[in-house]
Design goal:
Elements lengths: L4 E3 L20 E8 L14 E10 L3 E4 L1 H4 L2 E7 L7 E9 L4 E5 L13 E2 L8 E8 L2 E16 L6 E9 L9 E4 L2 E9 L4 E6 H11 L14 E3 L4 H6 L9 E5 L15 E5 L2 E2 L5 E4 L3 E4 L1 H7 L5 E8 L2 E8 L21 E4 L2 E5 L2 H4 L6 H4 L2 H10 L11 E6 L14 E6 L2 E2 L3 H8 L6 E6 L7 E5 L3 H12 L5 E2 L17
Parallel strand pairs: 8-13
Antiparallel strand pairs: 1-10, 2-3, 2-5, 3-4, 4-7, 5-6, 6-7, 9-10, 9-12, 10-11, 11-14, 12-13, 13-14, 15-16, 16-17, 17-18, 17-21, 19-20, 21-22, 23-24, 23-30, 24-25, 25-26, 26-27, 26-28, 28-29
Length: 501
């Protein structure tokens, strides 16, 4: 998607304040999370436990606001505050990974007695100097943060798009839920920070909506996601070919993934001219009442929840028409190659020493911070081309990730990172498909057919000795189980629609 920029004037920074309990000491707390993730290369075991430390802020309703990223994979959440020598245990009361926010509750009696909830700002400032506050080592660090711009970007989970406040901060190594204030009002939470000390802040427009919806009596209503692939409309020849006269305006719809908000209303090669009554320019910008020129996705996040209907104006085959689009959330699980798994272990199957698993972003990131360059090219290529290409016929990409060598699979031990097309002649669109097909050998053989690749087109296993070979391999390598299928069924994105991949 095209990110929208709003340049604002920088203001000279005052020197950072000395650590102090006031004026934020009664509102900002430390968050200590014990976690244990899965070893993506050996999905049957967990990594060593770890601890991450960040910040949270007290909000109305006796709750602590922090980020979903902070509590991901948590086995224990504890809070630190002034005047308490020991940590206090907390529970995750509400979490939305798509917008990267979480609310924590505390059952310990009297915990909130000497704490003060912050007031939420009415709107995110677009200029000036703010104050970022961090809890660290039983002290508060308060640092100047200069507003640089407002920019629409993807969230931590990689699906929801909304405006982020970009600031230049004096804080080093931030980005773990530090609250950002203007005077004594909260304007957002810091969620990421680059090496140049530029931080990204979830703005109060998103924070306030998450907090209020998390407490709504009817249950949480998710933020809507447009989810449609589009491109700018700056090419006059293309605009004319699509039937648009005069200067190009609006954006060109390229693809409408299954499960997206546009599914059932928009079609490829539509020109989307307006959303919710506001015209969209040729670069995907609208005029926001507070932020100025900003990406149109911000309108959906600010004004609506999933389930709302919004009016559209569309140029289709040279004719301008009015449509209604039902907004949906877009769980990351709706992607063919999900960017993340929220607190779910990786599924896998060990078959005669061959290790199969679903391809996802968690696995790709196991190649390190520069995974897009260091992971196998055939995997990153699939991610680039097909990450959002889930269809009713293909829900996941299953790969042979590697082989645990034994006499049973001799000759195959060097195979790795190949996508599976079929098993025993049955298409494989999920781990459930793979495991189910292995139970139905053909002429005493289990045949695994791969997508086109430079290594091998298929492998053949003796079905009669397969179970015994698998059991022996599990014993040799100290693996407790041969199969772990997904804990929950895949979400239902609804009816198929024109414009799917």
């Amino acid at each position: 998607m095209i990110a929208a920029l709003l340049a604002v004037a920088a203001v000279a920074a005052p020197p950072p304040t000395a650590p102090s309990r006031d004026p934020y000491g009664a509102s900002v707390v430390g968050v200590v999370v014990s976690y244990q993730g899965w070893d993506e290369q050996r999905p049957w075991v967990k990594k060593n436990p770890g601890v991450r430390r960040g910040s949270g802020v007290v909000v109305e309703g006796k709750a602590i606001l922090t980020t979903a990223e902070m509590v991901a994979g948590a086995t224990l959440v504890q809070l630190e505050t002034f005047g308490r020598a020991t940590h206090v245990e907390a529970e995750v009361a509400a979490v939305d990974p798509e917008c990267n926010l979480a609310l924590l509750s505390v059952s310990a009696s009297g915990f909130f007695d000497d704490l003060k909830p912050v007031q939420l700002a009415a709107a995110t400032p677009t200029e000036g100097t703010l104050r970022t506050v961090r809890w660290q080592s039983q002290q508060l660090e308060a640092s100047a943060s200069r507003v640089k711009r407002i920019q629409v970007e993807e969230s931590w989970y990689g699906v929801l798009e909304h405006a982020f406040l970009q600031v230049q901060t004096d804080l080093v190594s931030g980005g773990w839920g530090e609250p950002v204030f203007t005077d004594d009002h909260l304007v957002g939470l810091t969620v990421s920070q680059g090496n140049d000390q530029r931080a990204r802040v979830i703005p109060v427009e998103v924070v306030s909506r998450f907090v209020s919806r998390a407490r709504a009596p009817g249950g949480y209503r998710a933020f809507p996601v447009f989810g449609v692939k589009w491109q700018v409309n700056e090419d006059r020849a293309l605009a004319a070919w699509l039937g648009q006269s005069g200067p190009p305006a609006g954006i060109v719809i390229r693809q409408v993934p299954w499960g997206s908000s546009g599914c059932g209303s928009l079609q490829p090669l539509d020109i989307l001219l307006a959303v919710d009554g506001l015209p969209i320019d040729a670069n995907g910008f609208v005029t926001h009442p507070s932020f100025g020129r900003v990406g149109f996705a911000q309108l959906l996040v600010e004004r609506h929840v999933a389930g709302d209907s919004v009016p559209l104006r569309v140029l289709r085959k040279g004719h301008e028409i009015s449509l209604s689009m039902t907004l949906r959330d877009y769980p990351v699980a709706d992607d063919l190659i999900p960017a993340r798994r929220w607190n779910q272990p990786p599924s896998y199957a060990i078959v005669g020493g061959l290790v199969f698993r679903e391809l996802d972003g968690e696995y790709l990131r196991s190649w390190g911070g520069d995974w897009f360059k260091d992971a196998p090219l055939r995997l990153t290529t699939m991610y680039s081309l097909f990450a959002e290409a889930q269809t009713p016929e293909r829900r996941r990409i299953v790969i042979l990730s590697g082989v645990l060598p034994s006499s049973y699979n001799i000759g195959y031990q060097d195979l790795e990172e190949i996508a599976v097309a079929a098993v025993n002649g049955r298409p494989v669109a999920s781990m459930d498909d793979l495991v189910g097909a292995l139970g139905v050998p053909v002429d005493g053989l289990d045949t695994v057919t791969f997508e086109p690749n430079a290594l091998r087109s298929e492998i053949v296993l003796d079905a009669a000795s397969l179970d015994a070979a698998t059991a022996e391999i599990l014993k040799t390598f100290g693996i407790s189980g041969a199969v772990r299928l997904p804990a929950a069924p895949l979400p239902d994105p609804g009816p198929a629609c024109a414009g799917m991949f």
